Amino acid sequence: MSLMNKLQRLELPFDLETIKENIYDVAGVRVVAHSEMMSIKLVDALKQQDDLTVIAEKDYIKKILKKMVIEVITLSLKFQSFFI
Question: Is this model's pTM higher than 0.70 or not?
Answer without folding.
Answer: no
